[in-house]
Amino acid sequence: MTAPKAHSWIAGMAPYVPGKAKVEGVAHPVKLSSNECAFGPSPAALEAFAQSAEQILRYPEADSAALRSAIAGVHGLDEERIICGAGSDDILTLLIHSYAGPGDEVIYSQYGFMVYPVQTTAVGATGIAVPNKNWAADVDGILAAVTSSTKLVFIDNPNNPTGAYLPWPEIERLHAGLPESVVLVLDAAYAECVTAADYSAGAELVERADNVMMTRTFSKMYALAGLRVGWAYGPPAIIDILNRVRMPFNVCLPGQPAAIAAVEDTGHLAQSVAFNREWRAAMTAALDAMGLDAVDSQTNFILVGFPKDSAHDASAANKFLAKNGYIVRALPSLPHHLRISVGKAEQNQAVLTLLAEFMNGSPQ
Questions:
Q1: Third-level CATH fold of 8-31+267-357
Q2: Most buried residue, 63, 134, 266, 293, by CB count within 10 Å?
Q3: 3-state SS of the chain: helix, strand, coil percent to 5?
Q4: Domain 55-265 has CATH 2.70.70.10
């Protein structure tokens, strides 16, 4: 008998690997590996979630109409051009599956969100990884990589895992240089973290172009990662395509009212952003003072470069932190760096103390 076979391009692909959550021998480790929002969700979101419990025997609203209306009201957008999904990576996946396939090319940064190459491979398309420039996307490099086979260009802005961002004029320059047939996807998962004055998530470009999508999430600064709620804003024609292929009931029933309450609680979000900004700056300054190379970040994490000597390199630092109960993110593509999420105040201070001990001694 011949066993069933998947597509040849899927059989050998590497799956997405999330941040670790456990350490052997440590009962309750502190997880600073997945860029979750330590400030926590809005109390109103928690209340909305709790109140939805008695309704979970029902299917959720299929088109997330109430949630789309709430998002549109807060952000001043057209709700008919909004689509919701099970996290923004659900929508990123829909875009790749809808617009790329064998013989097509998808462009993204070398250091970028891993969903792009994983799903590009899954549909049999060819991924083109363009080296980053100053840790952010390289506009000129991306434009030079575009061919007649290019279908999508992904820009995670700010970038994950580096934390760097492209100022808005650079995004406009990138779009102006792309063929109208190429979909530019502005992945703004960390938009709420950004405090730079020359940044934009991209809604204004979506409204005047037919080939631009902006994706957002409730998993980061809204602290609803466990509910898997994301959304996107795009041209009517692309939204129509995605609505044809998305799974029905793709945003869970408790996730919808919780996200509505979260997006409408602008005061809580402002407090979360202020907390993140304060600790991001403090941690960056402390890491620099240790002689480490902290990349300037506009997210809720910091990419940290370590020396290359074996006693104080990134691998040794990762093991030292794990032994002491702190989980950060080691990145195969950046072996001399660790990505550290902003946690609670006491967690941030503790990880800084541990790293100072690591750098000043000879950890085993």
A1: Aspartate Aminotransferase, domain 1 (3.90.1150)
A2: 63
A3: 40, 15, 40
A4: no
**Average pLDDT over the chain, rounded to whole?**
95
For 264, the token pair is 């409408």
Q: Which residue has the tokens 């993204």?
A: 108
Pull the structure tokens for residue 22.
Answer: 């456990």
Q: From residue 108, how far is each of 5, 92, 126, 324 by CA, in Å? A: 29, 12, 11, 36
The answer to whether residues 213 and 202 touch, using CB atoms and an 8 Å cutoff, is no
Amino acid letter at 83?
A: I
- Identify the band that residue 268 occupies on the pLDDT scale cut at 50, 70 and 90: very high
Buried residues in 103-130 as b, exposed as e (16+ CB within 10 A): ebbbbbbebbbbbbbbbbbbbebbbbbb
Q: Is 162 helix (H, G, I), strand (E, B) or coil?
A: coil
Q: Give the closest residue to 353 by CA, choosing from 321, 313, 316.
A: 321
Count Cβ atoms below 10 Å from residue 158 Cβ, excluding itself.
Answer: 26
Of the candidates 353, 130, 98, the one whose C-alpha atom is nearest the C-alpha of residue 240 is: 98
Query: Domain-by-domain residue ranges, the chain?
Result: 8-31+267-357, 55-265
Does 364 score more than 70 pLDDT? no
* DSSP structural state of residue 57: T
Amino acid code (one letter) for 38: A
Q: Name the residue among 238, 216, 191, 202 with its Cα closest to residue 95.
A: 238
C-alpha closest to that of 125 among 93, 169, 81? 93
For residue 21, pLDDT over 70 is answered with no
- What's the pTM value of the predicted model, to 2 decimals? 0.93
Three-state DSSP at 21 gives coil
Cα separation of 127 and 129, whole Å? 6
